[in-house]
Amino acid sequence: MMPTVELHLHLEGTFEPELIFAVAERNGITLPYGDIEELRRRYEFTGLQNFLDLYYANMAVLRHEQDFADLTRAYLARARRAGVRHAEVFFDIQAHTSRGVPAEVALGGVSEALAASEREFGISTGLIVTFLRHLPAEDALRSLEEILRLDVPLLGVGLCSSEVGPAAPFKPVYDLARAHGLRRVAHAGEEGPAANVREVLDVLGVERVDHGIRALEDDALVDRLVAERVPLTLCPLSNVRLRVLDNLAEYPLRRMLERGLVVTINSDDPAYFGGYVDENVRQLTDVLGLSLDELTTLARNGVEAAFVDDARRAELAAEVTAWREAQLAHQG
Ligand code: ADE
Ligand code: ZN
């Protein structure tokens, strides 16, 4: 199995229907769906907003620290089977605090599970809190200030949810994050235009762009991303399920690789989009006929794009090389 770095993964997007029902039941919550099959039938999306509505509704059954720990642990167990060796996971803190769950409860459960990840699953991790673009930037700033007062290990900040309205109002959030030594990413160029990618680079000072697929519509921007080696965390199955593209055959991955973009393959919200990162890679490989060299480049891009120290980066790089050599020996 290809060793993988996962850089674009919403923990709440790994909430599988079975666990949604189990957590709802133990919290005494009645879901508006009769059973798992009825819920699954709703996993047909017309676009980002239509998906987000269901995603936020389902995560509302998470109430207690244990719920957040169980969600996180279930992801890590699945990620291990997908070959994930390092994961930088997104967590939509405001989606929980806005409905009355204290930040320390939600983050307590997540960080407890992440802290045990290396030992339990052999996966190194980092936590990126993602602020919601559809809420006022002042809420995000207050939220980050609160999180910084908590004793929670934090890797970075991100921005997600509906790609509407400017990202510029979030500049104070990113400035505060930078002042505290946090890493900075943002969703842009998923449903929104290439100009949104420029905005998060120029105004928020992000170090990676989540999705960024629509950057391809702006040649000068692509040149800049290549020159500055700004990674794009692509999520192919997500893009198809949210109708950013009609099908995987149209996925411009090879064009992006040939242009020299630092692209990585990730799973976004795998419980909703039909597959974890291994499935994203497998389907792309089948449909596009990816070569061992191309797969190696994708794996190495993930290692380059990860926010890890030199020692961990060297370990991850060595695993990719060992995997490549095993594949070559097998082919030969
Ligand atoms: N939150 C969870 N998944 C998302 C996506 N694909 N785009 C924006 N916000 C999200
Ligand atoms: Zn995302």
Automatic annotation (TrEMBL):
Keywords, comma-separated and alphabetical: Hydrolase, Metal-binding, Nucleotide metabolism, Zinc
InterPro entries for the chain: A_deaminase_dom, ADE, Ado/ade_deaminase, Metal_Hydrolase
Transmembrane domains' residue ranges: none
Name of the protein in question: Adenine deaminase
Cellular compartments per GO CC: cytosol
CDD domains: ADA (cd01320)
Role according to the record: Catalyzes the hydrolytic deamination of adenine to hypoxanthine. Plays an important role in the purine salvage pathway and in nitrogen catabolism.
Statement: the UniProt record of this protein carries the keyword Coiled coil: no
Annotated binding of Zn(2+), by residue: 8, 10, 187, 268
Cofactor or coenzyme needed: Zn(2+)
Organism: Georgenia ruanii
Cofactor, how bound (note): Binds 1 zinc ion per subunit.
Reactions mediated catalytically: adenine + H2O + H(+) = hypoxanthine + NH4(+)
Gene3D superfamilies: Metal-dependent hydrolases (3.20.20.140)
Catalytic site: 190
Site feature location: Important for catalytic activity: 211
Entry-linked PANTHER family: ADENINE DEAMINASE
Sequence ranges assigned to domain Adenosine deaminase in this UniProt record: 3-323
A single GO BP: adenine catabolic process
A molecular function (GO) term: zinc ion binding
Protein family per UniProt: Belongs to the metallo-dependent hydrolases superfamily. Adenosine and AMP deaminases family. Adenine deaminase type 2 subfamily.
Documented EC number(s): 3.5.4.2
